[in-house]
Every structure is written in C-alpha cells, then in structure tokens.
Design goal:
mainly alpha, elongated, URB1
Length: 1129
C-alpha cells in the first residue's frame, strides 16, 4: 500500500517535519588560539555553519584544558590574557535577555534543542561547564565566573538545562554535561550561589528527574573507566553532595525531607566506584550528621538514615564478595551512626520504655486497697514486645547476620551497648535456633550471645532523663521490668532446655561454650543485684517494689539456668588432667557462682566436693608450675575452696579414698607454704572456729607459726595433726570437759587471782586433743617437738589463757618433752611475727566532730497489727503456688492472731477455702501444706474460738515459719518439723516453746553441723512470736526465760555465727516491749542478776537491756517485791 499523499485542499494537517541532515558529522578540526578575535570568530553561531561552530568549540576546549591542566606553563600567561580579552568583549548586562553573556553559545544551544541536535547541545553544555571550571581555578577571573553562573541561572537558560536533564536514559552524553554545569555553578567560589540554584529548584532540583538519574548506574565497566568517564548516577550524586556542602540550614533541611531522594542516593551504593562511595559517606557525615546547625532537625537526619539506607551501606561494609575498597570506611561510618546520638538516629535509652520510670499517682495504693506489688503496674512484665525509641536501629539490626560476619556482630553489639532497650525487643522478634549442634552457625550464634552477655549493666539501670543527650538522673522510682533485665542476662534463645542439653553434650566445645555463657550471666546478675540494692536503699516510697523485682528476677533467672545436678555432672565428667585444665577451671568457677549468687538453687543438691578439693590441695602441695596450666590449676583451687566453704556436704575432717590427709589438713599444708594468703587463712579460721577446734584467731596464728620451724614438717606430724582434729570434731563434749578440768586445777591451786575474762576463757578443742594425744606419741621425736612448740607458741600470745598454761605444763611434765622445750623458747616470738598478716590499708577519713549520742539497742520493736487486712482476699487473686511463694498465705495465717474477732472469723473461713483448693490443685507438697493449715485451724477452734480470744502470736508465727520450711525440703529443721506435724492433729500451745527447746538444745541435730542452726531457728521464732501478754504468759509458765538465759553460757554459743547470744538478749528485750514484761522478768526470771553478770563480762548490750527493764517496769510492784528502791537495783 502506497503512502498517502498530502492534500493541501480540505485538510488542515501540517506536513511532517523533514528528517534532520546532521546525523553524520565530520571529525572536528582543532585550531590553535592565538588571539581573542580569533576565538570570537570561532565561537560565532550561524545556522549554516554548524560544523564550523563544532570546530570552534573543540578548539576552545583544547585552549581551556591547556590553561586548566597547565599543559604549557610558558604560554599560560598569554592564554589567560587571550581568555580575559575574549570575556571582556562579551555582553555583561544580565537584564538584557536578548544579549546574554556568551550569547553565541546560548543561541547555539537553543537552536540545537529546537532541531533535536543532541550532539551540539551536549558540546555547548560541556564547554560551558569546562569554562566555568577553569574560571573557578583562577582567582582573577572571579567576576567573570559569577557573571557566567548568573547567566546560567536565567530562566531561558535553565529551560535548556532542564530539557537536557530530562533526556532519555540512553542519551547519557546529553545528561552528563548538564549535571556537570549545574555542579560547577553550585560549587563556584565556595558555593556562593548554591542558594540561588536551590531557589530555582523547579528546574535545578526536580525530585523525579534526580531520582531517575540516580538510578542510571553502570555495572559492567572497570574501576578505571568509571573514574575517567563518570556515569550519570555519579554526576548526579556529586551534584547533590554539592548542595549538602554549601546550602544553608533551611534549604538543606528542605532537601533532606525528600525521603525518596535520600533513598535513591544510597540505592546503588554497592555498585558505585570506591571514590564515589567515600565521597558520599564523608559528605553526609561531615556536612549533614555533624552539622551543628542541624542539631534541632533530627527528623531530617533520620530521613537520610533510614533502615533501607543503612542496609545499603552494610552491603558495602560487609557483604561485597570480593571485598569492596570502601568497606572499612563504610564500617566506620555505620559504627559512628550507631554510637553517636547527635547523628540523629540513635536515642539514648536504657531498660525503661517510655512512661515506666514513675508510678501513676492516680493509681496510688490507698490504705483500703489491696497491695498487689508489681502486679498493680499495668505495664510491668507485659508479654508483648516492649516499646522502643530506636525503631530505625531495631529494624536495621534485624537484617544483620551476627552469627556469620564478625563486623555485623560488632555493629549489633554497638547498637545494644548504646541503646540497651534494643536487646529485649530484638529477641522478641528474632527466631534464633540454638539446639546444640556443632556447626558454624551454632558457633556463630553462641559467640554473638557470649559478647552480648558481656555488655555492662547500664549506669543507674538505664534511667535516662535527657531527651537527646541521654543524661542520667539517678535511679528511677520504679525498678526496670523483669523480662527486660532477664533478656540482658540470659537472652530468650538460651532456655533451660537448651542450656541443659548443651551441658550434657558429648562435644567438649559445646559444653565449654555453655559454661562460659553461664559464668558471664551469673557475674552480670551479681553486679545487677548490687545495683538494685543501691536503688532500694535510695528509694523513699517504693522499697518494697524494688525488693520484689529483685526477688522475681532471681527466681526467673533460676528457672532459665540448668539445675545444680547438671553442673555437678559436667564437673565430674571432665578428666582431671592438664589437657582439660581450662574446662575444669570454668566449671569450678560456675559452681562457685551458683553458691554465691543463687545459694537456694545450689543447696538443692548435696554436693560433696571433698574428693576434688583434696586432690587439688595435694596438687598444690606438690607445687604448681608458673605456666598457664599452673595458673589455671591455682584458679580452680580457689573456686573449690569457696565451694567447700558454702557446701553443707563438705567433710573437712574425713580422709577420702587413698588420700593421705583430710581436706582441712591439706589446706593447712598449702597455707604453711604461703602463710600470707589472707583468703586461705580466713577459710581455715571459719572452718576450725565453726567446729570449735579453735576459739580465737590468735590460736590459728600459733598453729601456723608452730609449723614454720627450721626443719621441714614430717608426715608423722601431719598425720598426728589430722588425727587430733578428727578426734576433736567427733567428740567435742569430751574435750570441753578436759578443758574445764584443766582450768579447775589451777583454780584449786590458787591461781585465780586475776579476774580478767580473757585469762579465764577456754581455748579451742584442738589444744585439748593435742595435750591428750601427746603421751601416745612419746616415741616420735618429731611429733613431740611440734606439740611442745605449738603449746609454747600458743602460750607466748599477748593474752594466754590459764587453760593453755595448764595443758602446756602437763605436756612438759612428760620426760620425752623436756629436751624439746629448750629448742622452742627463743624463737616463739619470731615465729608469731612471721605469720602476722599485714594490716589492710584503710582510707583515712577526716575527723568530723559529731554530737555525742547515747548508745541505743540494736533491736526492733515487735510489729503492730494494721487496721486494714487486704491479705484476707489477696491470696485468692493469685495462683496458689504464687500465693504461697509471695507470702500471702503466711499473712492469712497471722490474721488468726488479730485482736478483731471479725478478722479472725474471716481468716478461719478463708483458710478452709484455701484447704479445699489446695487438695484439688497441682501444687507440689500440697499434702504437707494441707496438714499444716488443718492443724492450725484445729488448734484455733479447740483452744481459742470457745473463749473468743485470738491465737497467740507464738503459734501464728510458728505456723508461718513451718510453712517456709515445708517449701524447702533440704532445710535443716525439715525432718523434725514433719515428725512434729504428724504427732497430733492439734498443738498444745503452752507446751510448744518447751518442746522445741528440748528438741534442739538437748537433742542431736539432723545434720552434723546443724546444731546451732536449729537453736538459732528456735530463738528466731521466740523473738518473732513474743508480741502480746498471752505470748509472755506462755513463756513464763514454761520456764523458757530461764532455759534461754542458761543457753547463753554454752561454750559454742559465742561462735555460732555470732548471733546466738545476741538472740538470747533479744528475747529478753522483746519481753520488755510487752506490757508487764519487765516486771515478769524481774520477779519471775531473776534477770537483773543475770544481766549484771553478763554485762560484767563485756557485753554492752546487756547493760542497755538492764536499763530498759528498770525504765519500763512497774516501780510500785517491784519496790513491794524487793523491799528496795528501783534505783538501787
């Protein structure tokens, strides 16, 4: 079909434009510029002389490049003169739009656009950009450059540039010169016209055009080619960066608020040349993120630092296959963004989401309201993800691969350290599988969690007061949420199941990783609890909430950690050789932390560390090398010593297997070699003093000094010491009688003239055992020599007791010991001086004169009954197990002791309801709890309801303490308590104190070392239960005061944790707090003479109690009873 011909008549359609004839160009001829007139002729535009103009532009380009790049230094001055003469001949009036500066070139550019001559338009734009670049390098041509820039910014010329910027994507030869021209205008003379360029943003900063050009990237060219011939994206990037450099605050903010443009700037960052990447990162950091004028415009900076842009920079920093040349610069940029709050994306934060630092005053706890503690706070420990301020960082770190790349791991940890709030939110959304399997992925995740747990606890637990700078303002009113703190201690992937399986793995590496993670977690928990204790002390109105939060954290942490038996099993399965020294040291450290940080969990298992400790002591006795293995062995020994100190199953005086000595003797041998070790000396004193083998620390000094003689101590001596310690620990009563008998001999001989209490005191049992066994070792010179030396050094103390002197005389009376006595008299004082520990340095505090105050008693008044009893219903609002653990059931039991009959009746009904619910529940040990509650109800109904009187507090507090014991089957009083409960369904209240004193003071303990623990438990109960006249009457009728005061003079009472004697005095003090109690003590118990005797022995508290008895007694009654004035008593 032939082409339809154009008909002129009857058709208004214009003819088609003829195809341009300039598609094929000749190569431009370059002429050397000799004078300005020649240059003006070459750049003259004529429509019929396009080729001549192209030749002129090419010649002008060569001319400018010669000036710009100093190609001919000798001729450069002449060339600059020619350029100046040419520019001076051009029109300079900007108001005359018909004759602009360099009008011939602008006319040629306009003609090229009208005729679609893209090559000519590209050449004109390129020569203008080159001219402007040349002028910017010549200070004398500044005015010409400013004139050219303003000419470029004329509206008719910007339309030409905009048309070039909007050219099709494949015509990069048209787009690039326009971008270079705008960049030169923006940067000229330090950006003096940058704001002028920004004002004409419709033509110069069209967002859609810039976004399109930022996507025109070339990926198939080598680095050198990309640097020589930049792509459209590279030129667009430099154009934008020029605006970031030179724009003022307002204009820069307006440009940054374009989110699509900022995203496009970083979109193809991984494909850009290294110099472009470095330029982007440097300009954005120096001129945007660090710009002080933009400090108040965080939202503008956040538009630049979106999670998408951070991911693109991460691709350069860590994910380039061949290693991007700018990887280090990108990593440093990311780390600065994560660590610097002034950059705009980081908000300093801690462990407190917004609005959780203070309690809502509208939800304050009224007097009539039920106190729910932390549960009264709606936001506390919510199951959903906690709210965070750093949402951009949270979104970004979710895309990181901390298990696969060390740099990404460091970036994530930097974010967590700068904003600790991110940890809980991160693991709330991150599904991390940590099932123990020895693979690179598992090792990567374990290393990441290891570094995460190592992060320090934030100051003031992360209470940030400032909005931007994150200033601390001390501790908050409320504690941080437990789940947030727990995620920072043991993140969510480290569940109880996972950690237990890791400990029981056959792979040593997996087990070692798990142990190290747990060690760090326990250490961090210890420091966290110390911070919470400080916050509790400083809190004015929420101490109970801080204490509850600390207890809840410890409970949840214990639930997530492996059981003690699994850790013990791990320790036992590791071979005891040098190859596994590091693993054994780590597990021993973990065992130590279990006993120090979570003692309840540790004591759930009866761990006998005797064998391991004795082997470690024997290894230390042989001498350890100074190598790394030797240092690890020494650390392991230190951990085992602490474990033995806390472990109730430790058998200090028993030989284990084929070992030569018991653990205590092995420890003593080790200490003799390093007798200045304060920690070992302290442990020796605690063990020997607790078992009454030594009475004073000076006796331990004498024991160590006696082993530091000139000659090495033989095995016979060590065996003798071991035997004496074993005998004294097994038969303490026998050796106490021997000590008293020795003291009585001197009294009969008339040597009691000195009434000093220290002189009359009894020494430890070891002295009696040595004196008893010395005659049987008469044929062993080494043993006799040591025994004489020990007693002699002991008698050289500053204050030797009469008993020591008597026993020394008995040993010296032996014929075999007379020769040995002469060898020890001279060096006893020197030996004691050698073993004296240096005094610990004490910081001198300047003396401040304080007003003298009278001494006060260190005891507290008994608790008084509150007018409100929310505990009647509080237990029903919780799970039964939680109610028992939180003490709500204990408070309900004490309601039976209330002075209000209505409260007692309600408590009785609630306890019956509680019994019914317990029987149908799944609570562990529910049968024991039901039996206890049933006996309390039966006792109350049979002995109190008929007479309508309250249950004595002695009975109520006993029930409360019995409930606590039943929750802990490993408690030392647990067996005796169970026997008491099954004895009868009803308690005989008047006989209860006397029964328990007989069951503890006059009976064997259930555990070997629990005698004084049981006695102290009974005394604590008596102190707590003595609150009313009914309680006082029960104790008076049972003769409890007489029996308790007699307990004060027991030889071991002063060393039983140092509190038994104090508790005896506190029982008397509590009696004075009850109406009529002081008179009862004076007339029925005769405590005045007893207190005077105790006070004469050096107990200042007894004197204060005596003063209180006199101040609170009924003077008339006492005067009538004693027939003397009270002041004379």
């Amino acid at each position: 079909m032939s082409k339809r011909s154009y008909e002129q008549d009857g058709d208004d359609r214009p003819p088609k434009r003829a195809r341009p004839e300039h598609t094929n160009y000749q190569k431009a001829a370059i002429e050397e510029i000799q004078f300005a007139r020649q240059l003006q002729q070459l750049l003259t535009f004529r429509q019929d002389g396009i080729q001549q103009l192209r030749n002129g532009i090419a010649s002008f380009k060569a001319f400018l490049e010669s000036i710009l790049y100093h190609r001919d230094e000798d001729d450069r001055a002449r060339q600059m003169s020619i350029l100046r003469e040419y520019l001076d001949t051009q029109p300079r009036d900007l108001k005359d739009a018909e004759k602009p500066f360099l009008g011939q070139l602008w006319q040629a550019w306009s003609f090229a656009n009208q005729n679609n001559n893209d090559y000519l338009a590209s050449q004109v734009a390129a020569i203008l950009a080159l001219l402007l670049r040349t002028l910017s390098s010549l200070l004398d041509f500044r005015d010409h450059g400013i004139l050219l820039c303003r000419t470029v910014l004329l509206h008719q010329h910007l339309r030409l540039i905009k048309r070039g910027l909007n050219a099709p994507k494949h015509k990069d030869f048209v787009i690039s010169p326009c971008l270079r021209l705008l960049t030169e205008v923006t940067c000229f003379d330090g950006g003096v016209l940058a704001s002028e360029v920004q004002k004409r943003k419709e033509e110069t900063l069209d967002i859609s055009t810039l976004r399109r050009n930022l996507g025109l990237v070339r990926t198939d060219v080598p680095e050198e080619e990309a640097r020589r011939k930049p792509s459209v994206r590279t030129l667009t990037v430099r154009y934008l960066l020029a605006h970031f450099k030179y724009l003022h605050e307002g204009a820069k903010v307006g440009l940054l608020q374009s989110r699509p443009l900022c995203i496009a700037l970083f979109q193809h960052l991984a494909d850009d040349p290294a110099d472009v990447v470095n330029e982007i990162l440097s300009v954005t950091e120096q001129n945007v993120l660090k710009d002080k004028d933009l400090q108040q415009h965080r939202s503008a900076k956040q538009t630049l630092l979106t999670s998408h842009n951070l991911e693109r920079v991460t691709d350069v920093a860590t994910r380039s296959h061949d290693g991007h040349p700018s990887a280090d610069r990108a990593f440093a940029w990311l780390k600065a963004v994560c660590n610097t709050s002034s950059y705009g994306v980081l908000w300093r934060s801690g462990w407190y989401p917004a609005g959780t630092t203070k309690a809502d005053p509208q939800n304050g706890r009224a007097d009539s309201a039920i106190d729910l503690g932390l549960d009264s706070l709606e936001f506390y420990d919510r199951v959903d993800r906690p709210n965070v301020r750093n949402t951009i960082l949270l979104t970004w770190i979710q895309t990181l691969r901390p298990h696969a790349d060390p740099k990404e791991r460091e970036l994530a940890l930097t974010c967590f350290e700068s904003a600790p709030e991110l940890v809980a939110a991160y693991f709330a959304e991150k599904n991390m599988q940590l099932e123990p399997k020895l693979s690179n992925t598992w090792i990567g995740y374990a290393s990441f969690l290891f570094e995460l747990i190592r992060l320090p606890v934030p100051s003031y637990l992360g209470n940030m007061n400032g909005e931007e700078d994150g200033a601390n303002d001390g501790y908050a009113e409320l504690p941080p949420q437990t789940n947030i703190m727990l995620e920072n201690l043991l993140p969510r992937p480290l569940t109880h199941k996972v950690l237990t399986r890791c400990l029981n793995q056959s792979s040593d590496l997996i087990t070692f990783f798990a142990v190290r993670l747990l060690v760090l977690a326990f250490q961090k928990l210890s420091s966290l609890q110390a911070e919470m204790r400080k916050a509790t002390e400083m809190s004015d109105s929420h101490k109970d909430l801080w204490q509850e939060a600390s207890g809840r954290l410890l409970t949840r942490f214990t639930e997530r950690t492996p059981a003690m038996k699994d850790v013990i099993g791990t320790f036992r399965k590791i071979p005891d050789d040098d190859e596994h020294a590091m693993q054994r040291e780590a597990v021993a450290r973990l065992l130590r932390l279990y006993y120090e940080v979570t003692p309840v969990q540790a004591l759930a298992e009866n761990f006998d560390v005797s064998t391991a400790l004795t082997a470690a002591l024997a290894r230390g006795d042989e001498g350890s090398s100074a190598s790394e293995v030797g240092e690890l062995r020494a650390l392991e020994l230190q951990h085992l010593l602490v474990v033995a100190k806390h472990s109730p199953g430790m058998r200090w005086f028993s030989k284990q297997g084929a070992l030569k000595h018991s653990p205590i003797v092995s420890l003593l041998r080790l200490h003799v070699k390093d007798h200045q070790n304060r920690e070992v000396r302290s442990l020796l004193w605690e063990v020997l003093g607790q078992h009454d083998l030594l009475a004073l620390e000076s006796e331990l000094d004498a024991l160590v000094a006696s082993l530091l003689g000139k000659d090495e101590v033989s095995d016979e001596v060590w065996a003798f010491i071991d035997d004496c310690m074993s005998r004294a620990s097994k038969q303490p009563v026998k050796y106490v009688d021997q000590l008293e008998a020795a003291a009585s001999k001197l009294t009969e001989a008339g040597l009691d003239a000195e009434a000093d209490a220290d002189f009359n005191a009894l020494p430890g049992l070891l002295v009696a055992a040595v004196a008893e066994q010395a005659p049987f070792a008469a044929k062993k010179p080494a043993v006799m020599r040591w025994a004489v030396r020990f007693l002699d050094v002991l008698s050289h103390n500053k204050k030797p007791t009469r008993t020591v002197l008597a026993l020394r005389d008995e040993v010296l009376a032996l014929p075999e010991s007379r020769q040995e006595a002469a060898d020890t008299d001279d060096d006893a004082g020197d030996l004691l001086a050698q073993v004296q520990l240096p005094k610990m340095s004490v910081i001198e505090v300047p003396h401040i004169d304080k007003p003298e105050t009278a001494p006060t008693l260190p005891f507290t008044q008994p608790d008084t009954e509150s007018d409100n009893h929310p505990e009647l219903l509080r237990w029903a609002q919780k799970d039964l197990g939680v109610a028992i653990e939180d003490g709500d059931v204990e408070a309900l039991l004490l309601c039976l002791c209330s002075k209000h009959s209505d409260v007692r009746r309600q408590a009785q009904a609630q306890l019956r309801t509680l019994m019914l619910r317990l029987r149908g529940s799944a609570v562990e040990d529910k049968d024991h709890f039901c039996m206890l509650i049933g006996e309390v109800i039966e006792t109350f109904e049979q002995q109190c309801v008929v007479e309508d009187r309250p249950l004595p507090y002695l009975t109520g507090t006993f029930a409360v303490r019995a409930l606590r014991v039943l929750q802990e089957p490993t408690h030392f009083i647990y067996p005796k308590l169970n026997r008491y409960l099954i004895k009868s369904p009803e308690w005989r209240i008047p006989r209860m104190p006397l029964f328990w004193l007989s069951s503890t003071v006059l009976s064997r303990p259930e555990e070997d070392d629990a005698y004084w623990k049981e006695v102290q438990w009974v005394l604590d109960w008596l102190v707590d239960g003595l609150r009313t006249q009914a309680d006082l009457d029960v104790l008076r009728r049972g003769g409890v005061f007489e029996k308790v005061t007699a307990l004060y003079w027991s030889p071991g009472a002063g060393k039983a944790r140092g509190v038994v004697r104090e508790k005896v005095v506190e029982v008397l003090y509590r009696a004075t707090c009850v109406e009529g109690g002081s008179g009862t003590l004076m007339t029925r118990a005769g405590v005045m003479a007893w207190l005077e005797m105790v006070g004469a022995g050096g107990d200042g508290v007894a004197g204060l109690v005596k003063r209180r008895v006199l101040d609170t007694c009924e003077m008339e009654r006492v005067r009538e009873w004693s027939s003397v004035e009270v002041d004379h008593l």
